[in-house]
Design a protein that fits this description.
Elements: H1 2-11, H2 21-51, H3 57-76, H4 79-98, H5 109-121, H6 127-146, H7 159-235, H8 240-272, E1 278-281, H9 282-291, E2 302-307, E3 313-316, H10 318-334, E4 343-352, E5 355-362, H11 392-402, E6 406-412, E7 416-424
Parallel strand pairs: 2-4
Antiparallel strand pairs: 1-3, 4-5, 5-7, 6-7
Helix pairs in contact: 2-3, 2-4, 2-7, 3-4, 4-5, 4-6, 5-6, 5-7, 7-8, 8-11, 9-10, 10-11
Length: 425
Protein backbone atom coordinates (compact mmCIF):
# COMPACT_ATOMS: atom_id res chain seq x y z
CA UNK A 1 0.00 0.00 0.00
CA UNK A 2 2.87 2.39 0.79
CA UNK A 3 4.47 1.64 -2.59
CA UNK A 4 1.18 2.30 -4.37
CA UNK A 5 0.77 5.58 -2.48
CA UNK A 6 4.37 6.53 -3.25
CA UNK A 7 3.87 5.98 -6.98
CA UNK A 8 0.63 7.94 -6.85
CA UNK A 9 2.32 10.88 -5.12
CA UNK A 10 5.24 10.71 -7.56
CA UNK A 11 3.02 10.79 -10.65
CA UNK A 12 0.25 13.15 -9.52
CA UNK A 13 1.65 14.93 -6.47
CA UNK A 14 0.72 14.44 -2.83
CA UNK A 15 -1.33 17.65 -2.77
CA UNK A 16 -3.23 17.00 -6.01
CA UNK A 17 -6.56 15.24 -6.49
CA UNK A 18 -8.25 13.92 -9.64
CA UNK A 19 -12.01 13.74 -9.18
CA UNK A 20 -12.80 11.47 -12.15
CA UNK A 21 -12.13 7.79 -11.42
CA UNK A 22 -11.44 7.01 -15.11
CA UNK A 23 -9.07 9.96 -15.56
CA UNK A 24 -7.23 9.06 -12.36
CA UNK A 25 -6.66 5.47 -13.53
CA UNK A 26 -5.51 6.65 -16.97
CA UNK A 27 -3.08 9.18 -15.51
CA UNK A 28 -1.67 6.57 -13.15
CA UNK A 29 -1.21 4.11 -16.03
CA UNK A 30 0.53 6.76 -18.14
CA UNK A 31 2.83 7.63 -15.23
CA UNK A 32 3.61 3.97 -14.56
CA UNK A 33 4.45 3.47 -18.24
CA UNK A 34 6.85 6.41 -17.99
CA UNK A 35 8.49 4.96 -14.87
CA UNK A 36 8.82 1.51 -16.47
CA UNK A 37 10.33 3.05 -19.60
CA UNK A 38 12.78 5.11 -17.50
CA UNK A 39 13.83 1.98 -15.63
CA UNK A 40 14.18 -0.05 -18.84
CA UNK A 41 16.25 2.67 -20.55
CA UNK A 42 18.46 2.83 -17.46
CA UNK A 43 18.97 -0.96 -17.56
CA UNK A 44 19.92 -0.92 -21.24
CA UNK A 45 22.16 2.09 -20.66
CA UNK A 46 23.96 0.22 -17.89
CA UNK A 47 24.32 -2.90 -20.08
CA UNK A 48 25.77 -0.90 -23.00
CA UNK A 49 28.20 0.90 -20.71
CA UNK A 50 29.24 -2.45 -19.23
CA UNK A 51 29.83 -3.92 -22.71
CA UNK A 52 31.64 -0.80 -23.97
CA UNK A 53 28.86 0.35 -26.36
CA UNK A 54 28.78 4.11 -25.80
CA UNK A 55 27.10 5.17 -29.05
CA UNK A 56 23.62 4.62 -27.58
CA UNK A 57 24.19 6.69 -24.44
CA UNK A 58 22.82 9.98 -25.91
CA UNK A 59 19.74 8.11 -27.17
CA UNK A 60 18.93 6.63 -23.79
CA UNK A 61 19.75 9.88 -21.97
CA UNK A 62 17.44 11.87 -24.27
CA UNK A 63 14.66 9.30 -23.86
CA UNK A 64 14.98 9.41 -20.05
CA UNK A 65 14.85 13.21 -20.16
CA UNK A 66 11.57 13.29 -22.10
CA UNK A 67 10.06 10.51 -19.99
CA UNK A 68 10.89 12.39 -16.79
CA UNK A 69 9.42 15.51 -18.41
CA UNK A 70 6.14 13.66 -19.03
CA UNK A 71 5.93 12.78 -15.32
CA UNK A 72 6.62 16.41 -14.37
CA UNK A 73 3.84 17.57 -16.71
CA UNK A 74 1.48 15.06 -15.10
CA UNK A 75 2.28 16.60 -11.71
CA UNK A 76 1.40 20.01 -13.12
CA UNK A 77 -2.03 18.71 -14.14
CA UNK A 78 -1.73 18.77 -17.96
CA UNK A 79 -2.22 15.03 -18.46
CA UNK A 80 -2.96 15.10 -22.19
CA UNK A 81 0.26 17.03 -22.90
CA UNK A 82 2.19 14.52 -20.79
CA UNK A 83 1.02 11.74 -23.11
CA UNK A 84 2.25 13.77 -26.11
CA UNK A 85 5.75 13.39 -24.69
CA UNK A 86 5.36 9.83 -23.40
CA UNK A 87 4.06 7.93 -26.43
CA UNK A 88 6.29 9.46 -29.16
CA UNK A 89 9.37 9.09 -26.94
CA UNK A 90 8.73 5.37 -26.42
CA UNK A 91 7.87 4.91 -30.11
CA UNK A 92 11.04 6.64 -31.34
CA UNK A 93 13.39 4.87 -28.91
CA UNK A 94 11.89 1.51 -29.89
CA UNK A 95 12.26 2.40 -33.59
CA UNK A 96 15.91 3.41 -33.17
CA UNK A 97 16.73 0.16 -31.39
CA UNK A 98 14.61 -2.07 -33.65
CA UNK A 99 16.19 -0.65 -36.83
CA UNK A 100 19.72 -1.24 -35.55
CA UNK A 101 19.52 -4.74 -34.08
CA UNK A 102 18.25 -8.21 -34.82
CA UNK A 103 14.50 -8.90 -34.56
CA UNK A 104 15.47 -11.83 -32.33
CA UNK A 105 15.97 -9.41 -29.43
CA UNK A 106 12.16 -9.07 -29.29
CA UNK A 107 12.34 -5.29 -29.22
CA UNK A 108 9.45 -5.07 -31.70
CA UNK A 109 7.00 -6.24 -29.01
CA UNK A 110 7.06 -2.72 -27.57
CA UNK A 111 5.39 -1.44 -30.74
CA UNK A 112 2.37 -3.55 -29.86
CA UNK A 113 2.39 -2.46 -26.22
CA UNK A 114 2.66 1.20 -27.19
CA UNK A 115 -0.27 0.88 -29.59
CA UNK A 116 -2.46 -0.63 -26.85
CA UNK A 117 -1.28 2.06 -24.43
CA UNK A 118 -2.44 4.77 -26.84
CA UNK A 119 -6.03 3.57 -26.39
CA UNK A 120 -5.65 3.10 -22.63
CA UNK A 121 -4.25 6.52 -21.64
CA UNK A 122 -6.64 8.63 -23.74
CA UNK A 123 -10.39 8.88 -23.07
CA UNK A 124 -13.18 8.36 -25.60
CA UNK A 125 -13.31 12.04 -26.58
CA UNK A 126 -9.59 11.80 -27.45
CA UNK A 127 -9.97 8.59 -29.47
CA UNK A 128 -8.66 10.28 -32.64
CA UNK A 129 -5.37 10.82 -30.82
CA UNK A 130 -5.30 7.12 -29.93
CA UNK A 131 -5.81 6.17 -33.57
CA UNK A 132 -3.19 8.70 -34.71
CA UNK A 133 -0.55 7.37 -32.29
CA UNK A 134 -1.36 3.78 -33.26
CA UNK A 135 -0.91 4.60 -36.95
CA UNK A 136 2.36 6.34 -36.12
CA UNK A 137 3.49 3.24 -34.24
CA UNK A 138 2.64 0.99 -37.19
CA UNK A 139 4.54 3.22 -39.63
CA UNK A 140 7.63 3.09 -37.40
CA UNK A 141 7.31 -0.69 -37.18
CA UNK A 142 7.23 -1.00 -40.98
CA UNK A 143 10.14 1.41 -41.33
CA UNK A 144 12.24 -0.48 -38.78
CA UNK A 145 11.88 -3.89 -40.43
CA UNK A 146 11.42 -3.20 -44.11
CA UNK A 147 13.64 -0.17 -44.76
CA UNK A 148 17.38 -0.74 -44.57
CA UNK A 149 18.18 2.44 -42.68
CA UNK A 150 19.35 3.08 -39.14
CA UNK A 151 20.45 6.18 -37.27
CA UNK A 152 22.40 3.96 -34.90
CA UNK A 153 25.23 1.64 -35.96
CA UNK A 154 24.11 -1.92 -36.63
CA UNK A 155 24.79 -4.10 -33.62
CA UNK A 156 25.44 -7.80 -33.61
CA UNK A 157 24.77 -9.67 -30.42
CA UNK A 158 25.97 -13.07 -29.31
CA UNK A 159 23.40 -15.83 -28.88
CA UNK A 160 23.53 -15.31 -25.13
CA UNK A 161 22.88 -11.57 -25.49
CA UNK A 162 20.03 -12.20 -27.93
CA UNK A 163 18.40 -14.56 -25.46
CA UNK A 164 18.93 -12.18 -22.55
CA UNK A 165 17.47 -9.26 -24.54
CA UNK A 166 14.45 -11.30 -25.61
CA UNK A 167 13.77 -12.35 -22.01
CA UNK A 168 14.17 -8.80 -20.67
CA UNK A 169 11.98 -7.27 -23.38
CA UNK A 170 9.23 -9.85 -22.95
CA UNK A 171 9.38 -9.60 -19.15
CA UNK A 172 8.78 -5.84 -19.31
CA UNK A 173 6.38 -5.79 -22.27
CA UNK A 174 4.03 -8.44 -20.92
CA UNK A 175 3.11 -6.70 -17.61
CA UNK A 176 2.97 -3.32 -19.38
CA UNK A 177 0.53 -4.69 -21.95
CA UNK A 178 -1.50 -6.44 -19.27
CA UNK A 179 -1.69 -3.21 -17.27
CA UNK A 180 -3.18 -1.40 -20.27
CA UNK A 181 -5.66 -4.19 -21.03
CA UNK A 182 -6.60 -4.52 -17.35
CA UNK A 183 -7.29 -0.79 -17.20
CA UNK A 184 -9.64 -1.01 -20.19
CA UNK A 185 -11.45 -3.99 -18.62
CA UNK A 186 -11.68 -2.33 -15.19
CA UNK A 187 -13.02 0.92 -16.68
CA UNK A 188 -15.63 -1.06 -18.61
CA UNK A 189 -16.63 -2.86 -15.40
CA UNK A 190 -16.70 0.42 -13.46
CA UNK A 191 -18.91 2.08 -16.09
CA UNK A 192 -21.25 -0.93 -16.12
CA UNK A 193 -21.53 -0.94 -12.32
CA UNK A 194 -22.12 2.84 -12.34
CA UNK A 195 -24.89 2.33 -14.91
CA UNK A 196 -26.56 -0.27 -12.67
CA UNK A 197 -26.17 2.03 -9.66
CA UNK A 198 -27.56 5.03 -11.54
CA UNK A 199 -30.51 2.97 -12.81
CA UNK A 200 -31.26 1.89 -9.23
CA UNK A 201 -31.05 5.52 -8.08
CA UNK A 202 -33.32 6.57 -10.94
CA UNK A 203 -35.93 3.96 -9.98
CA UNK A 204 -35.67 5.06 -6.33
CA UNK A 205 -35.96 8.73 -7.32
CA UNK A 206 -39.02 8.10 -9.50
CA UNK A 207 -40.73 6.16 -6.73
CA UNK A 208 -39.94 8.88 -4.20
CA UNK A 209 -41.12 11.56 -6.62
CA UNK A 210 -44.49 9.85 -7.02
CA UNK A 211 -44.90 9.56 -3.25
CA UNK A 212 -43.55 13.08 -2.78
CA UNK A 213 -46.06 14.68 -5.15
CA UNK A 214 -48.99 12.76 -3.70
CA UNK A 215 -48.11 13.30 -0.03
CA UNK A 216 -46.96 16.90 -0.49
CA UNK A 217 -50.16 17.95 -2.22
CA UNK A 218 -52.14 16.38 0.62
CA UNK A 219 -50.00 17.75 3.46
CA UNK A 220 -49.86 21.25 2.02
CA UNK A 221 -53.59 21.41 1.45
CA UNK A 222 -54.67 19.91 4.78
CA UNK A 223 -53.48 22.82 7.01
CA UNK A 224 -54.76 25.39 4.50
CA UNK A 225 -58.18 23.70 4.36
CA UNK A 226 -58.25 23.57 8.15
CA UNK A 227 -57.36 27.28 8.42
CA UNK A 228 -60.07 28.18 5.89
CA UNK A 229 -62.60 26.20 7.92
CA UNK A 230 -61.55 27.89 11.16
CA UNK A 231 -61.81 31.33 9.50
CA UNK A 232 -65.31 30.48 8.34
CA UNK A 233 -66.31 29.44 11.86
CA UNK A 234 -64.66 32.49 13.44
CA UNK A 235 -66.57 34.82 11.12
CA UNK A 236 -69.84 33.58 12.63
CA UNK A 237 -68.74 34.04 16.25
CA UNK A 238 -68.72 37.20 18.38
CA UNK A 239 -67.34 35.47 21.49
CA UNK A 240 -63.83 36.78 22.27
CA UNK A 241 -62.77 33.58 24.01
CA UNK A 242 -63.91 31.45 21.10
CA UNK A 243 -62.10 33.72 18.64
CA UNK A 244 -58.88 33.38 20.65
CA UNK A 245 -59.32 29.61 20.62
CA UNK A 246 -59.77 29.61 16.84
CA UNK A 247 -56.75 31.91 16.40
CA UNK A 248 -54.57 29.52 18.43
CA UNK A 249 -55.80 26.60 16.35
CA UNK A 250 -55.00 28.53 13.16
CA UNK A 251 -51.55 29.35 14.54
CA UNK A 252 -50.90 25.64 15.12
CA UNK A 253 -51.93 24.83 11.55
CA UNK A 254 -49.66 27.55 10.17
CA UNK A 255 -46.73 26.32 12.29
CA UNK A 256 -47.38 22.82 11.01
CA UNK A 257 -47.36 24.11 7.45
CA UNK A 258 -44.17 26.10 8.09
CA UNK A 259 -42.44 23.01 9.52
CA UNK A 260 -43.52 20.95 6.52
CA UNK A 261 -42.14 23.53 4.07
CA UNK A 262 -38.85 23.62 6.04
CA UNK A 263 -38.60 19.82 5.79
CA UNK A 264 -39.16 20.01 2.03
CA UNK A 265 -36.41 22.65 1.78
CA UNK A 266 -33.99 20.47 3.78
CA UNK A 267 -34.82 17.49 1.56
CA UNK A 268 -34.19 19.53 -1.60
CA UNK A 269 -30.90 20.97 -0.32
CA UNK A 270 -29.60 17.58 0.75
CA UNK A 271 -30.15 16.17 -2.76
CA UNK A 272 -28.89 19.22 -4.63
CA UNK A 273 -25.95 20.74 -2.74
CA UNK A 274 -22.41 19.41 -2.82
CA UNK A 275 -20.76 18.26 0.39
CA UNK A 276 -18.63 20.96 2.03
CA UNK A 277 -16.38 19.94 4.92
CA UNK A 278 -15.38 22.31 7.70
CA UNK A 279 -14.43 22.25 11.37
CA UNK A 280 -17.57 21.98 13.53
CA UNK A 281 -17.69 22.42 17.32
CA UNK A 282 -20.27 19.75 18.14
CA UNK A 283 -21.43 21.12 21.51
CA UNK A 284 -21.84 24.61 20.05
CA UNK A 285 -23.95 23.29 17.17
CA UNK A 286 -26.16 21.30 19.59
CA UNK A 287 -26.66 24.41 21.76
CA UNK A 288 -27.70 26.43 18.69
CA UNK A 289 -30.29 23.77 17.82
CA UNK A 290 -31.66 23.72 21.37
CA UNK A 291 -31.88 27.53 21.49
CA UNK A 292 -34.26 27.39 18.53
CA UNK A 293 -36.47 24.77 20.24
CA UNK A 294 -36.43 25.37 23.99
CA UNK A 295 -39.09 28.11 24.02
CA UNK A 296 -41.72 25.97 22.32
CA UNK A 297 -44.58 24.83 24.62
CA UNK A 298 -43.56 21.16 24.24
CA UNK A 299 -40.01 21.84 25.47
CA UNK A 300 -40.81 23.82 28.63
CA UNK A 301 -40.38 20.94 31.08
CA UNK A 302 -37.59 19.10 29.25
CA UNK A 303 -34.02 19.21 30.56
CA UNK A 304 -31.44 19.26 27.76
CA UNK A 305 -28.07 17.73 28.68
CA UNK A 306 -24.93 17.86 26.51
CA UNK A 307 -22.33 15.26 27.50
CA UNK A 308 -19.81 16.46 24.93
CA UNK A 309 -16.57 18.39 25.59
CA UNK A 310 -17.05 22.05 24.67
CA UNK A 311 -13.86 22.01 22.56
CA UNK A 312 -14.61 18.80 20.62
CA UNK A 313 -14.23 19.53 16.89
CA UNK A 314 -15.11 17.27 13.98
CA UNK A 315 -14.67 17.80 10.26
CA UNK A 316 -18.06 17.51 8.60
CA UNK A 317 -20.68 19.19 6.43
CA UNK A 318 -22.05 21.62 9.02
CA UNK A 319 -25.43 22.23 7.38
CA UNK A 320 -26.20 18.53 6.96
CA UNK A 321 -25.03 17.75 10.49
CA UNK A 322 -27.29 20.53 11.80
CA UNK A 323 -30.23 19.00 9.92
CA UNK A 324 -29.46 15.57 11.42
CA UNK A 325 -29.10 16.71 15.03
CA UNK A 326 -31.90 19.27 14.69
CA UNK A 327 -34.42 16.70 13.48
CA UNK A 328 -33.47 14.17 16.16
CA UNK A 329 -33.77 16.71 18.98
CA UNK A 330 -37.00 18.15 17.53
CA UNK A 331 -38.49 14.64 17.40
CA UNK A 332 -37.45 14.03 21.01
CA UNK A 333 -39.25 17.25 21.99
CA UNK A 334 -42.33 16.50 19.90
CA UNK A 335 -42.80 12.99 21.27
CA UNK A 336 -41.88 13.59 24.92
CA UNK A 337 -43.86 11.82 27.65
CA UNK A 338 -45.91 14.39 29.58
CA UNK A 339 -46.63 11.81 32.33
CA UNK A 340 -42.99 11.73 33.46
CA UNK A 341 -41.69 14.25 35.97
CA UNK A 342 -38.01 14.31 34.96
CA UNK A 343 -38.18 14.63 31.18
CA UNK A 344 -34.78 14.88 29.51
CA UNK A 345 -32.93 14.82 26.20
CA UNK A 346 -29.27 13.85 26.47
CA UNK A 347 -26.67 14.32 23.73
CA UNK A 348 -23.50 12.22 24.05
CA UNK A 349 -20.69 10.84 21.97
CA UNK A 350 -18.01 8.16 21.81
CA UNK A 351 -15.35 7.07 19.33
CA UNK A 352 -14.79 3.53 18.11
CA UNK A 353 -11.74 3.19 15.91
CA UNK A 354 -12.31 5.46 12.93
CA UNK A 355 -16.00 6.04 13.73
CA UNK A 356 -17.60 8.87 15.73
CA UNK A 357 -20.89 7.92 17.43
CA UNK A 358 -23.33 10.66 18.45
CA UNK A 359 -26.13 9.57 20.83
CA UNK A 360 -29.43 11.43 21.10
CA UNK A 361 -31.25 9.88 24.08
CA UNK A 362 -34.63 10.73 25.59
CA UNK A 363 -37.13 9.26 28.06
CA UNK A 364 -40.11 10.05 25.88
CA UNK A 365 -42.93 7.90 24.53
CA UNK A 366 -40.64 5.34 22.85
CA UNK A 367 -41.19 3.40 19.63
CA UNK A 368 -42.34 -0.20 19.26
CA UNK A 369 -39.78 -2.54 17.68
CA UNK A 370 -41.91 -3.28 14.60
CA UNK A 371 -41.67 0.40 13.60
CA UNK A 372 -37.90 0.79 14.03
CA UNK A 373 -37.14 0.49 10.31
CA UNK A 374 -40.37 2.06 9.00
CA UNK A 375 -39.85 5.41 10.72
CA UNK A 376 -37.01 6.22 8.28
CA UNK A 377 -39.32 5.86 5.26
CA UNK A 378 -40.51 8.92 3.38
CA UNK A 379 -43.77 10.35 4.79
CA UNK A 380 -44.13 7.57 7.34
CA UNK A 381 -46.26 8.48 10.35
CA UNK A 382 -46.80 6.13 13.26
CA UNK A 383 -50.43 7.19 13.65
CA UNK A 384 -52.97 9.69 12.39
CA UNK A 385 -52.41 11.97 15.42
CA UNK A 386 -48.73 12.39 14.56
CA UNK A 387 -47.75 16.07 14.40
CA UNK A 388 -44.76 15.60 12.13
CA UNK A 389 -44.46 15.81 8.36
CA UNK A 390 -43.18 12.26 8.01
CA UNK A 391 -40.06 13.65 6.34
CA UNK A 392 -37.77 14.38 9.30
CA UNK A 393 -36.17 10.98 9.90
CA UNK A 394 -36.12 10.23 6.18
CA UNK A 395 -34.10 13.42 5.65
CA UNK A 396 -31.80 12.37 8.52
CA UNK A 397 -31.13 9.03 6.84
CA UNK A 398 -30.52 10.64 3.42
CA UNK A 399 -28.23 13.33 4.86
CA UNK A 400 -26.17 10.68 6.66
CA UNK A 401 -25.91 8.68 3.44
CA UNK A 402 -24.33 11.76 1.84
CA UNK A 403 -21.88 11.93 4.76
CA UNK A 404 -21.04 8.20 4.49
CA UNK A 405 -22.69 7.72 7.87
CA UNK A 406 -25.54 5.65 9.30
CA UNK A 407 -28.17 5.72 12.04
CA UNK A 408 -29.42 3.09 14.47
CA UNK A 409 -32.38 3.17 16.85
CA UNK A 410 -32.75 1.60 20.30
CA UNK A 411 -36.20 2.17 21.78
CA UNK A 412 -39.01 0.67 23.84
CA UNK A 413 -42.55 2.03 24.31
CA UNK A 414 -42.90 3.93 27.57
CA UNK A 415 -39.15 3.88 28.24
CA UNK A 416 -37.66 6.23 25.66
CA UNK A 417 -35.45 6.24 22.56
CA UNK A 418 -31.78 6.48 21.70
CA UNK A 419 -30.74 7.36 18.17
CA UNK A 420 -27.10 6.47 17.44
CA UNK A 421 -25.51 8.39 14.56
CA UNK A 422 -22.27 6.95 13.16
CA UNK A 423 -19.93 9.17 11.16
CA UNK A 424 -16.42 8.56 9.84
CA UNK A 425 -13.91 10.58 11.90
Amino acid sequence: MNIKKGIRNLVIGSDKFIESYAEYKQVMLSGQFALIAIFLCSVYLAIDVFTGTFITMPVYATAIFFLVLSVIIHRQGDHCLANYFLLPTINIIVYLLASSESPNTGIFIYFLVNSIAAFAVFNYKQRRLSILFSVFTYILFLAAYFIDFSLLPKRDYSDEMLLASAVINFSFALPAGLMAIYLLISLNHYNASQLVKNNSLLVKTNEELDRFVYSTSHDLRAPLTSVMGLISIAERSDNIEELKKYMNMMRDRVHSLDKFIKDITDYSRNNRLEITREKVVLAELANDVWESLKYSPDAEKIQFVIDIPVDLEIECDKNRLRVVIGNLIANAVRYHDVRKLNQFIRLGFQTKGGVLCIHVEDNGQGIAKEYHTKIFDMFYRGNEESKGSGLGLYIVKEALAKLSGSIHLESSPGVGSTFIVRLPK
